[in-house]
Specification:
Layout lengths: L2 E2 L5 E2 L2 E5 L1 H4 L3 H11 L4 E2 L1 H4 L6 H10 L3 E6 L7 H17 L2 E7 L3 H5 L4 H11 L5 H12 L4 E3 L7
Parallel strand pairs: 3-4, 3-5, 5-6, 6-7
Antiparallel strand pairs: 1-2
Length: 160
């Protein structure tokens, strides 16, 4: 079921944030199918974005018009600047507008997220080496989402 916002835009019940590489064709596609099967209106970039849309603006609008975000934190999530920008936007809306955030720790240890350890540390070190202004904001959002109660999926033969 979809709702209209005051600006007349479609309002999604769920914004799904994930790193396509590594999750799109397995866990995330199953999650999307299950959510849609129950009648939940999900913003999924491949289904919803039109060719020619300005990506960052379209994603920010989709986040702001959604009731909650599900964040699939996989081993490569922090390597994506666009995922980190989404996450930062999501966590800002959580803090200021009561946006609900549900993390899924997919094949990652939640403590590695909130401690910025392992591959996450490497990803943030790479972003810092590029001297990007947003890195501190991204790190803060990443650490904050790591501290939220969520689901830890260790994976196995049944997650595909």
């Amino acid at each position: 079921m979809a709702f209209s916002s005051s600006s007349g835009q479609m309002k999604h019940e769920v914004f799904l944030s994930f790193r396509g590489e590594g999750t799109r064709l397995n866990f995330t596609s199953h999650l999307l199918k299950a959510l849609k099967h129950t009648g939940i209106n999900v913003f999924f970039d491949e289904d919803t974005l039109e060719k020619g849309d300005k990506l960052s603006l379209a994603l920010s609008q989709a986040i702001s018009t959604s009731n909650l975000s599900i964040i699939v934190l996989s081993v490569n999530y922090a390597s994506s600047k666009s995922c980190l920008a989404e996450l930062s936007d999501i966590m800002d809306r959580k803090d200021t507008g009561g946006h609900i955030v549900l993390p899924i720790f997919y094949h990652v240890d939640p403590s590695d997220v909130w401690n910025l350890a392992g591959r996450f540390k490497t990803s943030f070190d790479d972003h810092e080496s590029e001297k990007l202004d947003q890195v501190q904001q991204w790190q803060a959002a990443f650490v904050e989402v790591g501290k939220l109660k969520g689901w830890h999926i260790e994976g196995g033969k049944f997650d595909r």
